[in-house]
Amino acid sequence: MKWNLQWILKQKNNCFDFDETLNFPSEMFHNLSQINGLSEIHVTGHGQYDQKSRQLYIEYQIDGEMILPCAISLEDVDYPFEISSSSVFAFYKPDFEEDVIEVKKDIVDLTPVIFQEIMLEIPMRVVKEDAVLQTQGKGWKVMDESDVDDSSDEEEIDPRLAVLKDYFKDKE
């Protein structure tokens, strides 16, 4: 989703509408533990360029599905979302305090902004409806108190430390 300044200036009243579908490659999510992918990302919106301030104001809506890991089973969960947002792009070097995005080489690229907006909307955890907690696997098993053998209440003492049990008896 890129627009050139010259193209924007050719639009009637420096305004334009957009309606696009975005695809994010699966390689983008290999290093992210909180999300496994995105699908069906649809972006619609409106842009308006103000020549006096040299800023482009964009309002947009994003909808699609996040593919998130289940908090219990780590299986993929499809999580639909809708986001409404706006961004301001500056065709000049903005001040540090200004809340605008600087445009490089007169080309506005909304795709990284959309990706960032989606990442901010990831829920802390999701659980698949039919998720089942595994209680055993290869070389491990979840135990509860009933599985513990209560026949010996005595604590076993390491023979190397057995001498220490009589240490304080002589000090009395």
Reading the helices and strands in chain order gives EHEEEEEEHEE
Largest sheet: 5 strands, mixed
Radius of gyration: 29 Å
**Proportion of strand residues:** 35-45%
- Global shape: elongated
Q: For the record, give the distance between the C-alpha atoms at the N and C termini, rounded to a whole number.
A: 83 Å
Number of helices: 2
Biggest sheet: strand arrangement: 2-3-4-5-6
Mean pLDDT over the residues: 86
Low-confidence stretches: none
Helical content stands at under 10%
Number of strands: 9
The quaternary structure here is single chain
Strand and helix map with partners:
Blueprint: E1 2-4, H1 5-10, E2 15-22, E3 37-50, E4 55-69, E5 76-90, E6 101-102, E7 107-109, H2 111-120, E8 136-137, E9 140-141
Parallel strand pairs: 5-6
Antiparallel strand pairs: 1-7, 2-3, 3-4, 4-5, 8-9
Structure commentary:
By secondary structure, the protein is mostly beta strands. Helices cover 9% and strands 37% of the residues. The protein contains two helices and nine strands; from the N terminus they run E-H-E-E-E-E-E-E-H-E-E. The protein has helices at 5-10, 111-120, and strands at 2-4, 15-22, 37-50, 55-69, 76-90, 101-102, 107-109, 136-137, 140-141. It has a five-stranded mixed sheet with strand order 2-3-4-5-6, covered by helices on one side. It has a two-stranded antiparallel ribbon with strand order 1-7. The chain has a two-stranded antiparallel ribbon with strand order 8-9. A hairpin with a 2-residue loop joins strand 8 (136-137) and strand 9 (140-141). The chain is elongated, with a radius of gyration of 29 Å. The chain starts with a strand and ends in a 31-residue tail after the last strand. The model has no long low-confidence stretch (mean pLDDT 86).
